Amino acid sequence: MTQGRCDGREWVTSFKISYSHDAFHWKYVNDAYDNHRLFEGNIDSCSVRHSYIDKPVIGRFLRFHTISWKGHPSMRVEILGCQPCKQPLALPPYAKTTASSESSPNKRNSPSISGTAQDSYLLTKGAWCAQKSDKQPWLQIDVGPPTILTAVSTKGLGEFRKKRWVTHFNISYANSTTGPWYNYSESGNDYSFTANTDKYTERRHYFASPFKARFIRFYPTKWKGKQPCMRAGVFGCPQNGICQKGYLRVAEDSPCVENIAYGRKSYVNNKRHFKRHVGEWSGSNQAQRAVDGDENQSIHHCTILDNFYVSRPFWMVDLGHSTPISGVVIVTWQGKNLKTNSPVKSSYYDYMRNLRKLTVYVSSEKRRSKKVEKIAKESNKCGYVTSVNEALFQRRIHIECMKPMNGRYLYIEAEGAEDRWSKVFSAVLCEVMAYS
Q1: pTM of the model
Q2: Mind listing the domains of the chain with CATH numbers?
Q3: Can you give the C-alpha Rg of the chain in angstroms?
Q4: Distance between CA atoms of residues 128 and 139, nearest Å
Q5: pLDDT tens digits for 318-353?
Q6: Got the DSSP string for 245-267?
Q7: Disulfide-capable partner of 127 in 196, 200, 229, 315 (CB 3.0 to 4.6 Å)?
Q8: What is the DSSP string of 368-387?
């Protein structure tokens, strides 16, 4: 929309438009004949003229080139368009950042400016800095579930006396750390982004071709100072609705984060339906149901822990390597897919009502350890939930670790109530999800 100068007889009668993503490389809006389109402007100084672009263009910057005018080239402009999916993604504490190398910009290694990948968020006071010897530095951001990425933003090293920032960088993206990695390109060529000119000003780039990815890497190619230092942010479409398999929402309105237990090998320390005590850890389909990503609450899709053949029933998942763990979300059985008067349903409800407590442990102990006392130590305890006020029988149970935990194996122990006439108890785990 365009207007002239209402307090005088001045307006633009024709103009052309060019657009750019970086304010350096410009393209004109063309007409049907692939010539620079000449837009008709206003006929007076106050009325509004609507001009439509036949084929929408994507750009950050627009230039209006005045061609003819009345009195003097004077104009007011309002731009109408669409800019969906521009929300910030991968914000702490949910984001995970890694880098090719890390180095403090301060020789004395100031604790406030460590130069690690965790210092790379836009709102931090420091920045990520690569080692001076790093010939191919990169900073990687894990945005969580693969989603549409529309823009990136960069800054230099923050509140620190040294002047260090990245002036040019390239980008690649992938859905797995093992690849394949794709270089961001425009017009068939790898695109070089122009970054910052000082350490404080934020520079944002909108992609001409948004893409879907989980991981995005920044490759500094030129920089100010002895080493590349930068802060970075990613923008796009946040995951809406139900999280895809392998991810969870810790709270109803929180973003989707990685479920580090999904698809991992799981074990129980008893084999059900064998009329003998089995004192070993056994992997089975029954144990694996709790990490299959299926939150179906049918009992046939759940893992059952009970004390038929062991006094202390445990379920365990092997995370593959030592992993930070902040908490666990457990989806429990609520009687689904069994008839109301079913004796099986009644018996399971009775057994569940004998359940008193679920405790989560995190340990580096090997799964073949038969002595549960080695697992159930206070130092390994993440947290627990009890039957007080029916907390244990909610559909969704959130157990947040009382302190930051690290370990390869995550255990859940079921304990029975001592004041019930029957000492038999069961815990039905339909899905167990863990997050860092």
Answers
A1: 0.68
A2: 2-77 (2.60.120.260), 87-236 (2.60.120.260), 247-435 (2.60.120.260)
A3: 30
A4: 8
A5: 999 999 999 999 999 877 555 555 555 555 666 777
A6: TTEEESSTTSPEEE-TTTT--EE
A7: 229
A8: T---GGGTS-GGGEEEEEES
